[in-house]
Design brief:
With 599 residues, this protein is mostly helical. It is 44% helix and 9% strand. The chain has a 3-stranded mixed sheet, with no helix packed on it. The two termini are 35 Å apart.
């Protein structure tokens, strides 16, 4: 699996201002590091005062010990899979028998006393994941207690990402037990555990949830490739014995990991102040108008929730998410019950036995609908953007349909030249069963269903993929544009990036997006404001200069969004037209809409 990079996590910077180098540490716990006594005092009041007593061994978190005899998950038998090979009419066939719906307690199975997690946590926060150094100094840190509760033991998680990591660990531990022949599952379990360790480490530094989530998801994006490549290979073997119509640890894991990847790409929109967008972009983010799309040469108006609401609903779905049956110990929910938790709360589809087709609005039996994993390929995009990795693309998609066109045609040998859009479409098409309705989650559209009958039959490649890509591209480009523009305008209190941010008039070292946030911080800030002004080492440049710096970052973001389409004519390329229009780069003579939707 990909090594987690210490430089992506802490950068050796002060735990409070995150801008100056570390000069000394907390004398009590010896974990927290600061650039000055001013920052140490501020961070103590904001966050560290809560954690220090645990890290120094003076206090123990309740429910921090795992007891196999009282653990509900350990006491129940996990679900098992039995494969029987029989010969029917001269052909060897596999009969799959599943019994039990329980899951494995990942703590009881792999870290019963939680010492491994504790040592990983210490090695991260003290030594940058240097396990050897942590082992050498093990006696020195034996008194350290973990500063947070394990939700698996107490039912309380410090945020929804901590809970999601717990669910992924549980599902992977179950899969390791069910499919011991697949060693990649154990590697994936270790990787998810390491990501959770990182998230705990970041929780020592960042007290505001959105900032903590930003940093963790940034790291996840950089390591998605290793997990996704394993999932591709395993899915071809495991999907043959896992049904979507019942309880399925594999499908549940794949879905939740897909949703995690989507969240890492859309979180930028929840960390920027949409009200400080320009007027046109604000309307776009709020989706005030229907999307005008062409399906089978017919113009349709599609209504989707606003991008802002979608990202909020995604976070709310994670917050309320559960994978267990109520009052049933470790019994896993049916796969359909798990993915339906990601319908927006305003959606009425889950209150009846019917879905509605996105295009023709035909009623669809929920039980006869197949979930299609649509958003895995973008997880690999950052990896294949590197020229040195481009030649590996074919090997990671070889398990899928190895041709774009018909066998024997000139297209057959062009797999290595497939664009990410073509890869997504190819993967999507192969999961669809003829005449069977399918549902998938799409960035910018949410959970959508196609009946796959009548005029909606075999329509994904020709029509649906194009307008969904248009919507997703708009969302991601919009989030990237303003996250870059406002990169240096983060509010000290709520951690939102806002074009309205302003400095404290006295010390010029803290920024606030509003008078409310500045007032909220004053109780602590008034004790250090004068000292910050005298020190002068954290002074931020004025808002205009920081906005100009943000514009330069936005220009880099524009080039990244346009990557692969630099030479395209915006008159004929939908992607180039979208990106240039959003960034104000369209030539005056170019039409409002491109002549073609095909790149």
């Amino acid at each position: 699996m990909t090594q987690l990079n210490w430089d992506l996590i802490f950068l050796g910077l002060c735990w409070n201002c995150r801008s100056n180098e570390q000069k000394f540490g907390c004398s009590s716990c010896k974990f927290a590091r600061y650039c000055s006594q001013i920052c140490q005092q501020e961070h103590w009041k904001l966050l560290h005062g809560t954690h220090c007593k645990y890290l120094s061994g003076k206090k123990v978190i309740p429910s921090s010990k795992h007891n196999p005899e009282t653990c509900k998950m350990c006491k129940q038998e996990p679900g098992k899979i039995l494969l029987t090979h029989v010969t029917i009419e001269g052909r060897l066939q596999v009969i799959v028998k599943k019994f039990g719906a329980g899951v494995v307690c990942h703590i009881g199975k792999h870290d019963v006393d939680l010492e491994k997690f504790k040592m990983d946590f210490i090695s991260l926060t003290k030594y940058g994941f240097d396990q050897k150094m942590a082992e050498i100094c093990k006696k020195e840190w034996s008194q350290v207690n973990l500063p947070f509760q394990f939700g698996e033991l107490s039912g309380k998680y410090f945020d929804f990402l901590d809970k999601l990591f717990s669910f992924l660990q549980t599902l992977l531990a179950t899969l390791v037990t069910q499919y011991p022949q697949h060693g990649q599952l154990s590697e994936m379990l270790e990787h998810v555990t390491n990501l959770r360790v990182v998230h705990w480490g970041l929780a020592l530094v960042h007290g505001v949830t959105i900032e903590r989530l930003e940093h963790t998801t940034e790291l996840i994006q950089k390591t998605l490739f290793s997990m996704t490549s394993h999932i591709f290979k395993l899915n071809n073997a495991i999907r043959k014995v896992e049904s979507q119509n019942d309880i399925s640890a594999w499908n549940s894991f794949m879905f939740l990991f897909e949703m995690l990847g989507i969240y890492t790409k859309t979180i930028d929109l929840s960390s920027v102040d949409v009200t400080s967008f320009n007027e046109l972009d604000n309307l776009l983010a709020m989706n005030e108008q229907d999307w005008e799309v062409v399906v089978q040469k017919e113009e349709l108006n599609l209504r989707t929730d606003s991008f802002v609401d979608q990202v909020k609903d995604l976070g709310k779905s994670f917050e309320s998410l559960t994978i267990f049956e109520p009052y049933a110990g470790n019994k896993l929910q049916k796969f359909q019950t798990i993915y339906e938790q990601f319908f927006p709360t305003s959606n009425q589809a889950i209150e009846s036995e019917q879905y509605s087709c996105e295009l023709c609005h035909k009623s669809i039996d929920r039980k006869k609908c197949k979930y299609v994993y649509h958003s895995y390929y973008p997880h690999l995009d950052p990896f294949f953007e590197k020229p040195e990795n481009l030649n590996l693309k074919h090997s990671y998609y070889s398990k899928l349909k190895p041709v774009i066109g018909k066998p024997g045609s000139e297209e057959k040998d062009k797999v290595g030249e497939m664009t990410m859009g073509q890869l997504i479409v190819t993967n999507h098409d192969q999961q669809i069963d003829a005449g069977k309705a399918y549902i998938s989650y799409n960035m910018g559209s949410g959970l959508k269903v196609i009946c796959n009958e009548g005029g909606c039959d075999d329509i994904y490649t020709t029509d649906v993929a194009k307008y969904r890509d248009k919507i997703a591209t708009t969302l991601l480009a919009l989030a990237s544009k303003y996250r870059s523009k406002f990169i240096y305008l983060k509010c000290w209190v709520c951690k939102i990036h806002s074009g309205e941010s302003h400095r404290c008039r006295t010390c010029k070292s803290r920024q606030y997006c509003s008078r409310e946030c500045q007032t909220k911080d004053w109780k602590i800030h008034e004790t250090i404001c004068g000292r910050l002004a005298d020190a002068g080492d954290q002074v931020k440049s004025d808002s205009q200069e920081r906005k100009e710096q943000g514009e330069l970052r936005a220009e880099k973001g524009y080039k990244k969004c346009l990557r692969g389409h630099e030479q395209c004519d915006e008159k004929n390329c939908q992607r180039a037209h979208q990106i240039k229009s959003l960034y104000g780069k369209l030539k005056p003579e170019v039409q409002t809409n491109p002549n073609s939707e095909v790149d």
